[in-house]
Amino acid sequence: MTFTQYIALTVLQAVAEVFPIGALGHKELVQHFLDWQGAGPTLPPSVRLGMALAILAYFRRDMTDMVMGVIRAAKGKRDPGARLALQIAVATVPTVGLGFAIHSVIGPWHVANIMGWTIAGGALLLFAIDHMSMTVKRVEHASYADGILISLCQVLALIPGVGGTAAMVFMARLLGYERGAAAQFAFLLMAPVLAVVAARDALASYDADGLLPTTTDFLGVGICFVSGLVALAFLMAWLKRSTFTPFVIYRLVLGGAVLVVG
Description:
By secondary structure, the protein is mainly α. Helices cover 75% and strands 0% of the residues. It has helices at residues 3-18, 23-34, 45-58, 60-74, 80-105, 112-132, 144-152, 164-174, 179-209, 215-239, 245-261. Helix 6 (112-132) packs antiparallel against helix 11.
Protein backbone atom coordinates (compact mmCIF):
# COMPACT_ATOMS: atom_id res chain seq x y z
CA MET A 1 0.00 0.00 0.00
CA THR A 2 1.36 3.40 -0.98
CA PHE A 3 1.51 6.36 1.39
CA THR A 4 -1.27 8.14 -0.53
CA GLN A 5 -3.45 5.03 -0.37
CA TYR A 6 -2.81 4.78 3.37
CA ILE A 7 -3.94 8.36 3.96
CA ALA A 8 -7.01 7.97 1.72
CA LEU A 9 -8.06 4.72 3.39
CA THR A 10 -7.55 6.16 6.88
CA VAL A 11 -9.75 9.16 6.08
CA LEU A 12 -12.37 6.88 4.51
CA GLN A 13 -12.45 4.60 7.55
CA ALA A 14 -12.74 7.53 9.96
CA VAL A 15 -15.62 9.12 8.06
CA ALA A 16 -17.36 5.77 7.53
CA GLU A 17 -16.99 5.00 11.24
CA VAL A 18 -18.84 8.21 12.13
CA PHE A 19 -21.51 8.16 9.44
CA PRO A 20 -24.01 5.26 9.63
CA ILE A 21 -22.57 3.60 6.53
CA GLY A 22 -20.15 0.96 7.88
CA ALA A 23 -16.37 1.44 8.12
CA LEU A 24 -15.38 -2.23 7.80
CA GLY A 25 -17.60 -2.73 4.76
CA HIS A 26 -16.06 0.26 2.98
CA LYS A 27 -12.58 -1.00 3.81
CA GLU A 28 -13.45 -4.40 2.36
CA LEU A 29 -14.90 -2.85 -0.80
CA VAL A 30 -11.81 -0.71 -1.38
CA GLN A 31 -9.57 -3.74 -1.02
CA HIS A 32 -11.80 -5.86 -3.26
CA PHE A 33 -12.46 -3.44 -6.12
CA LEU A 34 -9.32 -1.25 -6.05
CA ASP A 35 -6.98 -4.07 -5.03
CA TRP A 36 -5.32 -2.05 -2.28
CA GLN A 37 -3.35 -4.69 -0.45
CA GLY A 38 -1.71 -4.61 2.96
CA ALA A 39 -4.55 -3.00 4.86
CA GLY A 40 -5.29 -6.03 6.99
CA PRO A 41 -8.63 -7.74 7.70
CA THR A 42 -9.87 -5.39 10.43
CA LEU A 43 -9.74 -1.72 11.35
CA PRO A 44 -6.20 -0.92 12.59
CA PRO A 45 -5.59 0.28 16.17
CA SER A 46 -4.67 3.75 14.88
CA VAL A 47 -8.15 4.21 13.39
CA ARG A 48 -9.90 3.06 16.55
CA LEU A 49 -7.72 5.19 18.83
CA GLY A 50 -8.04 8.24 16.58
CA MET A 51 -11.81 7.86 16.55
CA ALA A 52 -11.97 7.45 20.33
CA LEU A 53 -9.95 10.65 20.77
CA ALA A 54 -12.16 12.48 18.25
CA ILE A 55 -15.27 11.47 20.20
CA LEU A 56 -13.70 12.59 23.48
CA ALA A 57 -12.77 15.94 21.93
CA TYR A 58 -16.11 16.60 20.27
CA PHE A 59 -18.17 15.62 23.31
CA ARG A 60 -15.71 17.24 25.74
CA ARG A 61 -18.55 18.94 27.63
CA ASP A 62 -20.18 15.58 28.32
CA MET A 63 -16.81 14.16 29.31
CA THR A 64 -16.17 17.04 31.70
CA ASP A 65 -19.64 16.63 33.22
CA MET A 66 -18.98 12.93 33.78
CA VAL A 67 -15.59 13.50 35.39
CA MET A 68 -16.92 16.23 37.67
CA GLY A 69 -19.98 14.11 38.39
CA VAL A 70 -17.84 11.19 39.51
CA ILE A 71 -15.91 13.53 41.80
CA ARG A 72 -19.16 14.83 43.30
CA ALA A 73 -20.49 11.29 43.65
CA ALA A 74 -17.34 10.32 45.54
CA LYS A 75 -18.28 13.04 48.03
CA GLY A 76 -21.71 11.49 48.47
CA LYS A 77 -23.64 13.79 46.13
CA ARG A 78 -26.02 12.53 43.46
CA ASP A 79 -25.08 13.77 40.01
CA PRO A 80 -26.41 13.04 36.48
CA GLY A 81 -22.87 13.11 35.10
CA ALA A 82 -21.81 10.32 37.44
CA ARG A 83 -24.90 8.32 36.50
CA LEU A 84 -24.09 8.63 32.79
CA ALA A 85 -20.48 7.62 33.40
CA LEU A 86 -21.62 4.54 35.31
CA GLN A 87 -24.13 3.66 32.57
CA ILE A 88 -21.38 3.79 29.97
CA ALA A 89 -19.03 1.72 32.13
CA VAL A 90 -21.71 -0.90 32.79
CA ALA A 91 -22.56 -1.10 29.08
CA THR A 92 -18.91 -1.35 28.01
CA VAL A 93 -18.14 -4.54 29.93
CA PRO A 94 -20.61 -6.92 28.21
CA THR A 95 -19.98 -5.28 24.83
CA VAL A 96 -16.23 -5.82 25.00
CA GLY A 97 -16.66 -9.33 26.39
CA LEU A 98 -19.15 -10.41 23.73
CA GLY A 99 -17.19 -8.76 20.94
CA PHE A 100 -13.93 -10.45 21.93
CA ALA A 101 -15.67 -13.81 22.31
CA ILE A 102 -17.30 -13.66 18.89
CA HIS A 103 -14.17 -12.33 17.22
CA SER A 104 -12.04 -15.11 18.69
CA VAL A 105 -14.42 -17.76 17.36
CA ILE A 106 -15.40 -16.49 13.92
CA GLY A 107 -13.54 -13.22 13.40
CA PRO A 108 -15.04 -10.57 11.14
CA TRP A 109 -17.21 -11.96 8.36
CA HIS A 110 -15.33 -11.48 5.09
CA VAL A 111 -17.96 -12.74 2.67
CA ALA A 112 -18.09 -10.40 -0.31
CA ASN A 113 -21.51 -11.44 -1.55
CA ILE A 114 -23.25 -10.53 1.71
CA MET A 115 -22.01 -6.95 1.77
CA GLY A 116 -24.45 -5.70 -0.84
CA TRP A 117 -27.32 -7.13 1.16
CA THR A 118 -26.11 -5.86 4.53
CA ILE A 119 -25.46 -2.36 3.18
CA ALA A 120 -28.83 -2.09 1.41
CA GLY A 121 -30.77 -3.98 4.07
CA GLY A 122 -29.34 -1.79 6.79
CA ALA A 123 -30.46 1.26 4.82
CA LEU A 124 -34.07 0.07 4.68
CA LEU A 125 -34.13 -0.73 8.40
CA LEU A 126 -32.61 2.63 9.30
CA PHE A 127 -35.10 4.49 7.10
CA ALA A 128 -38.06 2.63 8.58
CA ILE A 129 -37.10 3.15 12.21
CA ASP A 130 -36.03 6.76 11.63
CA HIS A 131 -39.47 7.70 10.29
CA MET A 132 -41.68 5.44 12.40
CA SER A 133 -40.24 5.58 15.92
CA MET A 134 -41.21 7.97 18.68
CA THR A 135 -38.86 10.88 19.33
CA VAL A 136 -39.14 11.73 23.00
CA LYS A 137 -35.95 10.73 24.81
CA ARG A 138 -32.62 12.46 25.29
CA VAL A 139 -29.40 11.21 26.85
CA GLU A 140 -30.44 12.37 30.31
CA HIS A 141 -33.44 10.03 30.07
CA ALA A 142 -31.24 6.98 29.42
CA SER A 143 -31.61 3.87 31.53
CA TYR A 144 -28.98 1.23 32.22
CA ALA A 145 -30.88 -1.21 30.01
CA ASP A 146 -30.91 1.31 27.16
CA GLY A 147 -27.16 1.75 27.42
CA ILE A 148 -26.48 -1.98 27.37
CA LEU A 149 -28.82 -2.66 24.43
CA ILE A 150 -27.43 0.19 22.34
CA SER A 151 -23.81 -0.62 23.17
CA LEU A 152 -24.17 -4.32 22.36
CA CYS A 153 -25.15 -3.38 18.81
CA GLN A 154 -21.49 -2.45 18.23
CA VAL A 155 -20.78 -6.17 17.93
CA LEU A 156 -22.73 -6.18 14.65
CA ALA A 157 -19.88 -4.12 13.17
CA LEU A 158 -18.04 -7.44 12.79
CA ILE A 159 -20.35 -8.03 9.81
CA PRO A 160 -19.03 -5.90 6.91
CA GLY A 161 -21.65 -3.50 5.63
CA VAL A 162 -23.71 -3.27 8.81
CA GLY A 163 -21.77 -0.55 10.60
CA GLY A 164 -21.54 -0.10 14.35
CA THR A 165 -22.88 3.45 14.28
CA ALA A 166 -25.83 2.46 12.10
CA ALA A 167 -26.72 -0.47 14.37
CA MET A 168 -26.46 1.64 17.52
CA VAL A 169 -28.48 4.52 16.08
CA PHE A 170 -31.11 2.03 14.90
CA MET A 171 -31.48 0.65 18.43
CA ALA A 172 -31.50 4.12 20.00
CA ARG A 173 -34.20 5.32 17.61
CA LEU A 174 -36.16 2.12 18.29
CA LEU A 175 -36.00 2.98 22.00
CA GLY A 176 -37.41 6.43 21.29
CA TYR A 177 -34.37 8.72 21.33
CA GLU A 178 -34.26 11.92 19.33
CA ARG A 179 -31.99 11.75 16.28
CA GLY A 180 -29.26 13.91 17.74
CA ALA A 181 -29.51 12.23 21.13
CA ALA A 182 -29.39 8.79 19.49
CA ALA A 183 -26.11 9.67 17.77
CA GLN A 184 -24.71 11.38 20.88
CA PHE A 185 -25.44 8.42 23.15
CA ALA A 186 -24.10 5.99 20.54
CA PHE A 187 -20.78 7.80 20.28
CA LEU A 188 -20.40 8.18 24.04
CA LEU A 189 -20.91 4.42 24.36
CA MET A 190 -18.56 3.76 21.45
CA ALA A 191 -15.52 5.67 22.72
CA PRO A 192 -14.44 3.32 25.55
CA VAL A 193 -15.04 0.24 23.41
CA LEU A 194 -12.87 1.66 20.62
CA ALA A 195 -10.14 2.49 23.13
CA VAL A 196 -10.17 -0.99 24.69
CA VAL A 197 -10.14 -2.75 21.31
CA ALA A 198 -7.34 -0.49 20.05
CA ALA A 199 -5.25 -1.30 23.13
CA ARG A 200 -5.93 -5.03 22.75
CA ASP A 201 -4.96 -5.02 19.06
CA ALA A 202 -1.82 -2.95 19.68
CA LEU A 203 -0.70 -5.30 22.47
CA ALA A 204 -1.46 -8.34 20.32
CA SER A 205 0.65 -6.90 17.51
CA TYR A 206 3.52 -6.26 19.91
CA ASP A 207 3.29 -9.75 21.42
CA ALA A 208 3.22 -11.38 17.97
CA ASP A 209 5.90 -9.36 16.19
CA GLY A 210 7.58 -7.30 18.88
CA LEU A 211 6.69 -4.18 16.91
CA LEU A 212 6.40 -0.84 18.65
CA PRO A 213 4.20 1.94 17.23
CA THR A 214 5.76 3.62 14.20
CA THR A 215 5.61 7.15 12.84
CA THR A 216 2.99 5.90 10.38
CA ASP A 217 0.85 4.65 13.25
CA PHE A 218 0.95 8.02 14.99
CA LEU A 219 0.20 9.73 11.68
CA GLY A 220 -2.81 7.43 11.28
CA VAL A 221 -4.08 8.42 14.72
CA GLY A 222 -3.75 12.09 13.83
CA ILE A 223 -5.43 11.75 10.43
CA CYS A 224 -8.26 9.72 11.91
CA PHE A 225 -8.67 12.19 14.78
CA VAL A 226 -9.03 15.19 12.46
CA SER A 227 -11.21 13.35 9.93
CA GLY A 228 -13.41 11.92 12.66
CA LEU A 229 -13.77 15.29 14.36
CA VAL A 230 -14.87 16.96 11.11
CA ALA A 231 -17.29 14.12 10.35
CA LEU A 232 -18.75 14.29 13.87
CA ALA A 233 -19.28 18.05 13.62
CA PHE A 234 -21.04 17.63 10.27
CA LEU A 235 -23.24 14.73 11.38
CA MET A 236 -24.36 16.32 14.65
CA ALA A 237 -25.11 19.64 12.92
CA TRP A 238 -27.04 17.81 10.21
CA LEU A 239 -29.16 15.86 12.67
CA LYS A 240 -30.28 19.06 14.37
CA ARG A 241 -32.31 19.95 11.29
CA SER A 242 -32.75 16.83 9.20
CA THR A 243 -32.98 13.02 9.07
CA PHE A 244 -30.78 10.04 8.24
CA THR A 245 -32.29 9.85 4.74
CA PRO A 246 -29.14 10.96 2.81
CA PHE A 247 -27.19 8.12 4.42
CA VAL A 248 -30.03 5.73 3.62
CA ILE A 249 -29.93 6.76 -0.05
CA TYR A 250 -26.15 6.40 -0.15
CA ARG A 251 -26.35 2.91 1.34
CA LEU A 252 -29.06 1.85 -1.09
CA VAL A 253 -27.07 3.06 -4.10
CA LEU A 254 -23.84 1.50 -2.85
CA GLY A 255 -25.49 -1.76 -1.84
CA GLY A 256 -27.24 -2.02 -5.20
CA ALA A 257 -23.98 -1.33 -7.04
CA VAL A 258 -22.17 -4.01 -5.05
CA LEU A 259 -24.88 -6.55 -5.81
CA VAL A 260 -24.76 -5.73 -9.53
CA VAL A 261 -20.99 -5.52 -9.93
CA GLY A 262 -19.90 -8.00 -7.29
